[in-house]
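yo, tRNA-Thr(GGU) m(6)t(6)A37 methyltransferase TsaA is done. seq:
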Amino acid sequence: MVRKNELREGEVAIDLPPAQDAGLVFIGRIRTPWTSRMETPRQGRQDGPICRLEIFEPFVPAIKGVDFYSNLEVLYWLDQSRRDIILQSPKNNEKTRGTFSLRSPVRPNPIGTSIVKLVGIEGNAILVRGLDCLDNTPLIDIKPDRCEFTPLAAPQPGDFETE
Ligand code: SAM
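structure:
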C-alpha cells in the first residue's frame, strides 16, 4: 500500500529540529492527472501522461531557451509528505532502510526530482512527460538535463582538476 502518513512496524520517527529557512520560492505549480497518492506513479515515465509546469510571474521570462533541450530536470516540493521518518519500511514488512538510501517522498526536506521529456511550451506553461507528483505540487526549479547541457560560461580551473 502507498504510504499516507502512517508509521509502519519497525520504522523510526524523530523530533525534527526547528526549521532553518532556506529561502525557497515556489516558481510555479505542477498540474498532473493525479489527485491521490494511491494512484500517482512511484517514478514518472517518459511515455507517461502530459503534465503542465505552470510558471508564476515574475518568473515567466525564465522559460526562454528551455526548448533548446529535449529533457529537463524538474525539482518539486512534495508538500504532503511526513518529514520525520529516518528509518523506513517501503515494503511494510518490518525491514527498514535509511531515508537517504531511498527515493521515498518521506524525507526531512521533501524534494522530488525527475528527468522529464519536453513536449512543448504554451504561454506560461511547459508541457512535459515523466512526472510522478500530485496535481498542484509546488514547483521549485527547472534545469536542462545535465547529459545534454554544456556550460556556456568559460571553464574555471576546477573543471580541469582530476584528483
Ligand atoms: N521522482 C521523484 C524522486 O525520485 O525524487 C519522486 C519519487 S516519490 C517515490 C513519488 C511518490 O511521491 C508518488 O508515488 C506519491 O506517492 C508521492 N507524492 C507525489 N506528490 C506528492 C506530494 N505533493 N506530496 C507528498 N507526496 C507526494
